[in-house]
Amino acid sequence: MSLSDTVGPDAPDPYELLSWYAEMGVTEALDETPRNHFADPAPAGNNGQPRLRPLPGRPTPPARPMAAAATAPDDATLSAKALAREARTLDELRTALAGFEGCALKATAKNLVFADGNPEGRVMMVGEAPGADEDRIGLPFVGRSGQLLDRMLAAIGLSRKEDVYIANLLPWRPPGNRTPTPQEVAICLPFIQRQIELADPDILVCVGGPSAQGLLGFTGILRSRGKWVEYDTGARRIQAIATLHPAYLLRRPLDKRLAWRDLRSLKAALDPKS
Ligand code: URA
Predict the structure, then answer these.
(1) Which residues line ligand 1 at a C-beta cut-off of 6 Å?
(2) Terminus-to-terminus CA distance in the chain, angstroms?
């Protein structure tokens, strides 16, 4: 349905339309035509702030600073690297991320989604980015795919609470769950790399293609999953493996057998005598 179908004598009831959108999983109101907000010149005489048109009978809302979008991507990556390097603990890293204005995703996200599980665990899992549930709650993997991930871990005797530390390549939800852009990944990468270094797990598991590509340089998750490689945390070399994302497995349950192989391989790496 396009915007033009929502006006006129045959227009649907707005409440029903909104309910239908919600049921279909539409969670963001986007314009019909794409706009490059980075390319928009600052309106003259407005001090670089966006021009806001007041709604009839309402006062003009105060302009929000455009810090996230105003930082050039290269500057943002440099600043992310410096901030990540300065953080000496996971708490300091979370604080640094919370104050970081270089990634535009922060402006549309409800919460920073930093990590869950046990930072002392031997395994660290890194997913792609928060979805709607994670964004609302502020924790990674709490929606349907998170529940499947917990069941997968339980199948090899691991629990999120005790054995596994969980984070994402990107700590903010991309609007509408779209795939993160390479620029967004590049900007956020220094933070997740530092998070891995500070958590210092024995084994890194990249969950899904974007995480495997961003952290291990893998392309094609179906081809690269299940292969053990070395990952240099900056402090030491650890073992790393990529596996299929639970959201993919929910759509393609037959491929759970591939994920099961990866999980058994993870179990064997953790406990070679078992
Ligand atoms: N998918 C991810 O990759 N991460 C989450 O936290 C939730 C869903």
Answers:
(1) 127-131, 134, 140-141, 145-146, 168, 208, 247
(2) 55
